Amino acid sequence: MLKGLLKTIGKIYFGHKIVLWMILTVLPVGVSVFMLEMFSSEIVQHIPIGIVKQDNSQLADRLERALQSSPVLNVKLICHDMGECEHAVIRGDLQTFIVFPNELERRTLRLEAPVIPVYSSGQNYLTNMFATKEIRAVLTDVGSELFTASFEDPIKTEIHSVGNIEGNYQGFLALGLVSAMFHLAAMLVAVYVGSFPLRDKRVREFYQYAERSWLTLGIASFVPAVIILWLEYMGCYAYTHRMLMPMGFEEFVMVSTAQLLMVICCVGAGMVFVGVTGVMRIATGVSGVIGGPAFAFAGQTFPVMAMPFAVRCFAFVLPLTHVLRVQSMMLLGDVGMLASWEVIKLMAGMALFWTLFGGLTMVLRWQYRLKHDSQMPVVVDEGNPVAVVRSRFKNLLEKIRRRKND
Amino acid sequence: MISRLLKVTLTEWKLFFTDPAAVLLLVVAGVLYAFYYPTAYVNQTVSRVPVAVVDLDHSAKSRELTRMASATQQVEVKAVYNDMLEAETAMAREDIFGFMVIPENMEKDLLNKKPTKINIFTHGAYVMLHGTIGTAFSTCALTVGAVSKVKAIALGKKVPSAKAMAMRDPIPLSIQTMFNNTGSYSNYVVPSVLVVILQQSLIIGICIMGGARGHRRFRRNYRYSEVENESLPYRYLGRSLAYFLHYCGFILFYHCFIYNVFDFPRRGELLPMVVFAVVFLSSVINFGMCLSQVFLHRESSMQLFLNLSIPILFLANFSWPSYLMPNWMVAISYILPSTFAVPAWLSIEQMGGDIYDVAPKLYLLAIQSVVYLVLGMFLTHVRDKTHFNTGDM
To answer: Which CATH number fits domain A47-145: 3.30.310.260, 3.90.1170.40, 3.40.1710.10, 3.40.1030.10?
Structure first.
């Protein structure tokens, strides 16, 4: 059996075209590294802003200098009027602009508290949030030094982001995106491995290689893919994690277990898609529809609790949602262990279900195709000969001939 | 001349409507995704986020602060704990997503004019919740602090409370949101995604049809077809016209129906919308026609572009600014129509930009379109001369 298993693995993974290795290794790893490079600057900086200076006073100059010295902001444009800045926002050249109103200094000194309007685009959620927060901090700081520098604020607040001390959300977003990539890749690879024998009409050939055992054929088809994807996923995750705080051993074990279970779930789901549809392009399309936007439903960008009930149910079915929960729980250190263990148990159940269901549908599909193919005349393409069938057939003929001669 | 072109167009249309894989991508995907994607964000904003307060002070002031936090719209105080470990455990279970720690002797320190610090802890994995919880808690805490500071200024400087208030904050800010007033997450993310959906489904669809043409069985079945033997420019432009008209329908469908159903702002004027549709679709179609000459199997384009959909979305400059990306990545992004189309679409539809505002991006799309047209015709010519071994006879 082991010999048959190894032969089948060799035939599927090494006697095949480049597409399998592209979708199994090059694309998931390449895209993950690409995404990490995209976020290599880690935090949002140099957000382009504009200033409309209706007041050319010393206070306005002081405020402008304070804004210019902030590393988060980049005063890109001093506009003559509001229209100029507004069009720059529409063009995407600016994210926000500030108006220093007429008589700003005079009214400030007379304690009339002139309001400084800050116009934010609102269209770019993250950048606008950082920009307005920084503008508020800078201008409030200058304002508090004008009259009451000797009066300290009685209450100060400090916001801590647990497990993400530097506020590097892009780092955590990259972790989520890497998981989303492998979530999709596992489905696509399973669909490809499960369906190319159907597409190329080679079920009989692989079945012969697997010594007429569906179990051997199933293991040879899908287990290497699971192992390769899992190892790649762990590698990419560890590489991404260097952007955040170091990972402890227990965290590594918990997260990698969750990752393995996610890969198994997705491969099982891919098997189900092939088993049910039986056509590579339809099964690939289904994987794309489910796996493609999975990240949007998994709760890292927009919380699951704020989604409608039906979407929450869909999010619950996605393995990605659970693996992201384990990853985020691990940010909290030891207190997250117990809660993440519960999630891992749930994922183990999901992995078992998808594997059994996928195995059943795949075997039925292969059996159907074997029966169907055996009723069809064998067409041997001279340009692309089916080596196994011919050689076995030849061997058989030679055996018969030899016996006759003997 | 026009009848020859329209004949190719109609034949292509008929061909992709009779191909289940092409229907799935060119018809079903565009409609399905338009409903499927925004549904997750139908509530638009996050409110009543479950949080907790760790009260180590147990004073009237700390209870006042807790009440103020409970009254805000953004958060809902689910529990008041006596120590931080309880709150951390609740956060690990995701029962709460943040908590505020009111320090011991806060009230006493305030009365003694000693500064005190309130720590706010949020779950590091959720950027949206971090902002919401942080803003809600710090507004409450600073309001309590502001009252004490105003009293201190009034007494110290011997001024009336109105003046003391002005001295505390002499230049108040008023933050106005120009285009997404409700701070809706769906208004931010979905319009950009819709453009990328149009691009991806169109490219994959064209490649599926092109992949079929690289199949020997297709060539055998259609070898006497008048349309498949039409001269190259008619064949190329006629097929492109079929996709163009089909996807114009999608842009109208999104503008008139999807934007209405999900209540997205529709500020687009007719002229920029029409020009956008022409240059964007021609750029994507020509890009797709180039790529369709490369793939031999119909599924290969799906496998490639599904894997690339996340980076393509992020390269479109709507979420992560391009000036923070490495230069080589920005250079790669210039290959994709979505890099210019997403900002142009947002400017037109979300912000009501006129033709002059979006002209620089539309020019770039037009240049892309011309380059891909020339390349696409050349590659089609090369493929016409190629002998294939792919697929059954």
So the answer is: 3.40.1710.10
From CA B302, how far away is CA B308, in angstroms rounded?
A: 10
How many percent of chain A have pLDDT more than 70?
A: 91
Distance in angstroms (rounded) separating the CA atoms of residues A276 and B21: 16
pLDDT score recorded for residue A335: 77
Q: Could you write out the DSSP letters of every residue in B343-376?
A: HHHIIIIIT---HHHHHHHHHHHHHHHHHHHHHH
From the list A117, A152, A164, the residue facing B176 with the nearest CB is A117
Across the interface, whether the CB atoms of B170 and A108 are under 8 A apart is answered: yes
DSSP B25: I
Of A146, A172, A199, the CB nearest to B170: A146
Between chains, do B303 and A192 touch, taking CB under 8 Å as contact? yes
What is the rounded average pLDDT of the residues B347-361? Answer: 92
- What's the one-letter identity of residue A64? E
pLDDT of residue B390: 55
CA dihedral A247, A249, A251, A257 (to 10 degrees): 130
Residues of chain A with pLDDT under 50: 380-381, 384-389
Integer angstrom CA distances of residue A256 from A244, A323, A326, A331, B139: 17, 9, 10, 14, 40
**Paired tokens of A361:** 């549908």
* d(C-alpha A391, C-alpha A398), whole Å: 10
Confidence of residue B387 (pLDDT cuts 50, 70, 90): low
Q: Out of A45, A185, A310, whose CB is closest to B307? A: A185
Closest residue in A to B178 (Cα) is A121
Q: What amino acid occupies position B322? A: S
- Give whichever of A145-154, A315-324, B89-98, B132-141 has the largest mean pLDDT: A315-324
Residues in chain A with CB shorter than 8 Å from the CB of B49 are 303
Strand partners, B175: A118
Dist. CA B238–CA B2, nearest whole Å: 9
Cα–Cα dist B25/B32, whole Å: 10
Element at B117 (helix H, strand E): strand B116-123
- Substitution target in B119, B171, B215 with the highest count of A β-carbons within 10 Å is B171
ipTM: 0.85
What's the whole-number mean pLDDT along residues B178-205?
89
Interchain contact, A339 vs B94, CB within 8 Å: yes
B101-114 per-position pLDDT tens digit: 999 988 888 888 88
Kindly write down the DSSP assignment for every residue of B227-289, as one continuous string: TTTS-HHHHHHHHHHHHHHHHHHHHHHIIIIIHHHTT------HHHHHHHHHHHHHHHHHHHH
Is B267 exposed, middle or buried (CB count within 10 Å of its CB: 0-12, 13-18, 19+)? Answer: middle
User: Does the beta-carbon distance from B124 to A129 stay under 8 Å?
Assistant: no
- Which of B121, B303, B325 lies closest to A38 in CB terms? B325
For chain A, what is the radius of gyration of the CA atoms?
Answer: 30
Taking each helix axis as running N to C, give the angle between helix B338-345 and helix B185-213, from 0 to 180 degrees, rounded to the nearest 10: 140
Instruction: Count the Cβ atoms, other than its own, within 10 Å of residue B385.
Output: 6
**CB–CB of B124 and A306 under 8 A?**
no
Chain B residues in contact with A332 by the CB 8 A cut-off are 88, 91-92, 123
Distance from CA of B330 to the nearest CA of A (A): 10
Pick A328's closest partner by Cβ from B106, B117, B125.
Answer: B125
Closest CA to B194 of B342, B297, B61, B28: B342
Convert the pLDDT of each residue in B240-268 to its tens digit. 999 999 999 999 999 999 999 888 888 88
Domains of chain B: 2-41+185-384 (no CATH), 49-168 (3.40.1710.10)
Which among B120, B144, B10, B129 is positioned nearest to B67, based on CA atoms?
B144
Specify the domain boundaries for CATH 3.40.1710.10 within chain A. Answer: 47-145
